[in-house]
């Protein structure tokens, strides 16, 4: 993956260079001390992944990402944990808090690599073909896949794709999160952020910021929090 580092602190940039050097699949194209300088470079170069600081002069990392039309995958690197939820609302791959541990860095890079591989695949257009009371048929690659609602764990949106994670497999569709959310039965599913839909029967635990399904952390977005908590706590959503 071609990557860049955007951070106004020289020591932080040096630390990221050292971390990147430990991963053979990463190709560092450049380091930039401001979002404006990085923006000029992104218009000319093919960048797959950007390690982006948040608190920077002139333009913050969050505002910079919002301004990009065709942004690369982003891993935020910051000393401030309080922006994590907002970063996930912008489809960030991960959020690393400084000082960054190497094992946490590697986990974030692996996640980005997996997503990039999915995006690069020649994935046929997938569509929801039929709904029943407890399952759906999804047509993909000239086949019909039967997915029981009880087996769907969660659904993740990534740019123009949606990945449906189930207990058996995962299916990639060209639908966006908003479209599939409008078609799923609310008694089973709840949209909890801009990028995630969860099957509430598989929720292990949750707090005011995160939902846990097994070992997966799913952000609870500010726009969706009140409705989710109201439905879940009031018992209006069917549980397993």
Describe the structure concisely.
This protein has seven helices and 16 strands.
CATH architecture verdict of the largest domain: 3-Layer(aba) Sandwich
- The mean pLDDT is 85
Q: Numbering strands along the chain, what is their spatial order in the largest sheet?
A: 2-1-3-4-5
Counted up, domains total 2
Largest sheet: 5 strands, parallel
> Which descriptor suits the 3D outline?
globular
* Strand segment tally: 16
Counting DSSP H or I runs of 4 or more residues, the number of helices is: 7
Helix content: 25-40%
Helix and strand pattern: EHEHEHEHEHEEEEEEHEEEEEH
**Strand-residue fraction?**
25-35%
What does this structure look like?
This protein is α/β, with parallel strands linked by helices and 240 residues long. The protein folds into 2 domains: 2-120, Response regulator (Rossmann fold, 3-Layer(aba) Sandwich); 127-233, OB fold (Dihydrolipoamide Acetyltransferase, E2P) (Beta Barrel). Helices cover 30% and strands 32% of the residues. It is built from 7 helices and 16 strands. The protein has helices at residues 10-21, 35-42, 61-67, 84-89, 102-120, 177-183, 222-233; strands spanning 2-6, 27-32, 49-52, 73-78, 94-97, 127-131, 135-140, 143-148, 152-158, 161-166, 170-173, 189-191, 196-199, 205-206, 210-213, 216-219. The strands form 4 sheets. A 5-stranded parallel β-sheet has the order 2-1-3-4-5. Helix 3 (61-67) links the parallel strand 3 (49-52) and strand 4 (73-78).
């Amino acid at each position: 993956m071609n990557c860049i580092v955007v951070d106004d602190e020289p020591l932080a940039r040096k630390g990221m260079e050292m971390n990147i050097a430990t991963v053979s699949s990463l190709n560092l194209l450049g380091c930039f001390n401001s979002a404006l300088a990085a923006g000029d470079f992104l218009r000319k170069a093919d960048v797959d992944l950007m390690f982006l600081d948040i608190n920077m002069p002139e333009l913050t990392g969050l505002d910079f990402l919002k301004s990009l039309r065709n942004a690369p995958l982003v891993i935020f690197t910051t000393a401030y944990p309080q922006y994590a939820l907002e970063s996930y609302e912008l489809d960030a791959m991960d959020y690393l808090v400084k000082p960054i541990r190497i094992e946490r860095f590697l986990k974030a890079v692996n996640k980005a690599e997996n997503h990039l591989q999915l995006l690069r695949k020649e994935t046929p257009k997938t569509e929801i073909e039929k709904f029943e009371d407890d399952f759906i048929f999804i047509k993909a690659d000239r086949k019909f896949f039967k997915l029981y609602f009880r087996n769907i764990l969660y659904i993740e949106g990534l740019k123009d794709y949606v990945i449906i994670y189930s207990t058996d497999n995962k299916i990639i569709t060209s639908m966006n999160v908003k479209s599939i959310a409008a078609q799923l039965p609310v008694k089973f599913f709840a949209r909890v952020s801009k990028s995630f839909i969860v099957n509430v029967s598989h929720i292990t635990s949750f707090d005011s910021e995160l939902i846990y399904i097994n070992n997966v952390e799913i952000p609870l977005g500010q726009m969706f929090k009140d409705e989710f908590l109201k439905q879940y706590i009031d018992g209006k959503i069917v549980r397993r």
